[in-house]
Amino acid sequence: MSRGGSQRALVLGLVWVSGLCVGAAWSQSSQRDAPPDKPSERANCDPGQCGDAESALDRAAAHPDAPPRGERLEAPDTSPRQGLSAAWADLRLLGLARAWDELLSAPAPGALGGPHLGASWRQLIDFYDGRAAFQRVFTAAEGLGPTYNDTSCANCHNAPNLGGGGADIDHGVRVHGPPWTGGDAMGLRKHAAPGFKREVGVGTVARLRSPPLYGLGVLDAIPNSDLDALADPDDRDGDGVRGVRGYRNGGRVRRPARFGQKANEWDLPTFAAGAMVDEMGLTNRLRRDARGDHDAVADPEVSDAFMRRVQAYVLLLGRPPAGATTDVSERGAEVFERVGCVGCHRATIGSGTHRVRGAYTDMLLHDMGPSLDSGIKDGVASGAHWRTAPLWGLRFRHRYLHDNRAATLDAALAHHQGEAKGASDRYRALPPEERAAVRAFLRSL
Ligand code: HEC
Ligand code: HEC
After folding, report:
1. N or C: which end of the chain has fewer CB within 10 A?
2. Would you kindly state where each structural domain of the chain is located, as residue ranges?
3. How far apart are CA 251 and CA 259, in angstroms?
4. Residue 5: enclosing H or E segment and its boundaries?
5. Which positions ≥6 away from 199 have C-beta within 8 Å?
6. Residues in Cβ contact with 290 at an 8 Å cutoff, skipping those fewer than 6 apart
7. Which of 381, 352, 377, 347 is nearest to 362 (CA)?
8. How far is the CA of 96 from the centre of ligand 1 (A)?
């Protein structure tokens, strides 16, 4: 079916199911006004009565710091239930009603900021519903803070549209490496609720942009073994490019990680749950606040249902669509390969059904040399270690590198030192028209 055709089918389908919802709502008017996202929602649900009481989420919550990779925090099962009232009880249908609003303004599957092309019905509903959760603005009375960076995910991830990065560094965050930890990273929160103290950095303070989130779900699905195979910590092939896996320590478990520009979180659902706490002070069943959350709102401050909606959104947010190519950009792609950019920005990663083309990353950490050294360590990452930035969607970015310091592509490449020095030197030694071809290629991504 063409894209237009499948969109129409989507809309018609939603009209049909929304009709079902409205009918069900009339028959269940007592539930109609119940706020869907309150933590009390699950507390009211007796063991065994909650459809997904034994879900991966519950198992993971029993060990908040170590959800085993592979036991993915799936959205609740959607298998058909008996009768309309049971259907209405299904949060997914509540989600549909919310998704309806979203659908009218949201990008279509495959478009920038839309869900994956080829997403199932179930996933489309989860995506559009999750997109609404991503924009939910919290207040202190609902658990925001007491210290926080912003009031919704969308406030930081919105350029050029929802799910993207921050338009400027002010929408990023500051981290600091306090002397007493030996320079290990801690996030600093910009704001404090009335009566609470703002956090002030002692020691080195560095800034991190809010990176775009498009397509991270497909990078999440790549098996660890494929990324392990790309790492070359001892530089066995002698090309000067090492590449190491990031790690996150959780309880007694040390797990390979890939998310965050320091590659310090093992999967996307856990990163999203962490962002709720770290950026918004919203405790949840997966992540407590390491500093303690001393406001008056009982923990966890967001329900599992809310957390799943946000997690589903980031998992289903599609890759940025590729731009138009020209003869020049195609020549640029060859030069990009020849000078060794692909040593880190790999055109293809993963294997089998999880092969990803066109992300131009290896999801590994590289030592980028002194000029990109933030002075702050994070897990195995030294101050100069950064995860290879995926280059897909680069044409939508106007500033480059982890702290948005570079205003031009050439400036970004001048900061490529350390393991990237060879490729960067070869690029800068190229004749001007070949450099221009590489830039044309980068702008086609
Ligand atoms: C105050 C701004 C801010 C808010 C609010 C915010 N983020 Fe982020 N986000 C960032 C920054 C900065 C980073 C980069 C962190 C790093 O590099 O370690 C980031 C990184 C991420 C990543 C990892 C990206 C990658 O490339 O690995 C995900 C996923 C993410 N955020 C999701 C969310 C979700 C979900 C929410 C809401 C619960 C949220 N963010 C709220 C600023 C923000
Ligand atoms: C040794 C690994 C390595 C090599 C080789 C390498 N890069 Fe990078 N590249 C990185 C890392 C790591 C970052 C992220 C640095 C940061 O965020 O501060 C990055 C960032 C970038 C960015 C900015 C992306 C963004 O989102 O801001 C561009 C553009 C880029 N590289 C292009 C190139 C080109 C062109 C070449 C070849 C001349 C190249 N890189 C070679 C590792 C590498």
Report:
1. N
2. 3-76+85-134
3. 18
4. helix 3-27
5. 147, 188, 189, 192
6. none
7. 347
8. 26
The rounded distance, in Å, linking the Cα atoms of 381 and 375 is 11
Instruction: List ligand 2's pocket residues with C-beta within 6 A.
Output: 241, 261, 336, 339-341, 343-345, 366, 368, 372, 386, 388-389, 394, 397, 400-402, 409, 412-413, 416, 419-420, 423-424, 427, 438, 442
Ligand 1: residue whose CA is nearest its atom 32:
272
pLDDT at 375 over 70: yes
Between CA 209 and CA 214, with CA 213 as vertex, the angle to 5 degrees is: 135
Torsion of CA 178, 179, 184, 186, to 10 degrees: -10
Rounded mean pLDDT, 265-293: 94
Distant-in-sequence, close-in-space partners of 337: CB < 8 Å, separation ≥ 6:
347
322: nearest Cα among 356, 348, 359, 270? 359
Alpha-carbon separation of residue 60 from 51, 64, 75, 284, 286 (angstroms): 17, 6, 14, 12, 7
- The Å distance, Cα 314 to ligand 1 centre, comes to 10
56 close to 311: Cβ distance less than 8 angstroms: no
Residue 2 has pLDDT above 60, yes or no: no
Q: Please give the single-letter amino acid code of residue 96.
A: L
Global confidence as pTM: 0.85
Model confidence pLDDT, tens digit, residues 4-20 = 445 545 544 554 455 44
Name the residue type at position 375.
Answer: G
Q: Give the number of other Cβ atoms within 10 Å of residue 10's Cβ.
A: 18
pLDDT at 253: 77
213 lines ligand 1 (CB under 6 A): yes
Beta bridge partners of 207: 174
The rounded distance, in Å, linking the Cα atoms of 326 and 437 is 10
Please tell me the number of Cα atoms within 13 Å of 260 on its side-chain side: 27
Buried b (16+ CB within 10 A) or exposed e, 223-234: eeebbeeebbee
Instruction: Copy the structure tokens of residue 145.
Output: 């803070």
Q: What's the gap in Å between 407 CA and the centre of ligand 2?
A: 14
For a substitution probing ligand 2, which of 416, 434, 445 has the most ligand atoms within 8 Å of its CB? 416
For the chain, give the number of residues.
Answer: 445
Whether ligand 1 lies within 6 angstroms of the CB of 262 is answered as yes
Q: Answer whether 129 contacts ligand 1 (Cβ < 6 A).
A: no
Residue 347, both tokens: 């055109």
